[in-house]
Amino acid sequence: MDARHKKKALIGLSAGLPLFLVGWALIFTYVRGPRAVTLLGSAPGLIALTMIIVSIPFYLWGCAELARAKGYSTAILLTCVLGWLFPVVVLLALPDKNRHQRRRW
């Protein structure tokens, strides 16, 4: 795995995934019942929606860098259509194409 892209992937995924998951956790815990219709009317709903929106570019950037680090095309991000976590699962399951790359000290 290419170290330059691996570091960027870790930064992007470690910022994007927690923001996304905490945003959904806020929605499921604080925005229920009749308040669910007015998601933007409550402070927790607005914070949760902002967290989810902010997480999207970080997550996609992290997945793109992980694909580059493993030697794959960034077109694999199109699998987001199948599910939000699908690109990470696919990239972690695929073998590393850069495994035989020479190390430089």
Provide structural commentary.
By secondary structure, the chain is an all-alpha fold. The chain has one domain (3-93). It is 61% helix and 0% strand. It contains 3 helices and no strands. The two termini are 15 Å apart. The model has no long low-confidence stretch (mean pLDDT 82).
Summarize the structure.
The chain has 105 residues and is mainly alpha-helical.
Question: Which helices and strands, and how do they pair?
Answer:
Elements: H1 3-30, H2 43-70, H3 86-93
Radius of gyration in whole Å, from Cα?
17 Å
Distance between the amino and carboxyl termini:
15 Å
Domain tally:
1
| Individual helix count | 3
Characterize the largest beta sheet: strand count, sense, and whether it forms a barrel.
Answer: none
Low-confidence segments, ≥5 residues, pLDDT <50?
Answer: none
Percentage of residues in strands: under 5%
H-E order: HHH
Q: What share of residues is helical?
A: 55-70%
Q: Which class best fits the helix and strand makeup?
A: mainly alpha
The geometry reads as elongated
- Mean pLDDT level: 82
Total strand count, please?
0
Descriptive terms for the model:
elongated; single chain; mainly alpha
